[in-house]
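The instructor's notes for this session suggest beginning with a concrete chain rather than abstract definitions. Hand out the sequence below and ask the class to guess, before any prediction is shown, which regions might be ordered.
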Amino acid sequence: MHKKIVLLSHSKLITDGLKEMIDQMNQSEQVEVLSLGGTSTGELGSDPMQLIDAINSSSESDAFLVFADLGSAVMSAEMAKDMIEESQQARYYLVDAPLVEGAFAAAITASVTDDIDKIISEAKISGKKGWS
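After discussion, reveal the predicted structure:
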């Protein structure tokens, strides 16, 4: 199974930097990171159509694990899910985890397993630093 880690932020610089970091650590051909920060015109903001276009141009077996930073990016991710086909929705996961830590943990976990529940679980616990 091919897994796509989708990075949504109001800033393309943020998602590009995070993609670069994940790509340096993850060498699996089964995991691809998509940097979808900002709007389609390069402005600050979020754009659900970028995500829909990425899904529509993908393979029918790709799984999408979507990570977002702030409220309207989350809303864009939710809106995109509502706008795609039911068959695509079944492979679309909105992951309630920190953008940086969660996406990184998901990408590394996805490189060794196809278990979506395990990938999401690792992403969700990734933000717990354990500092006392």
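Then share the key points. The first helix runs from residue 12 to 25. The beta strands are 3-8, 31-35, 63-68, 92-94.
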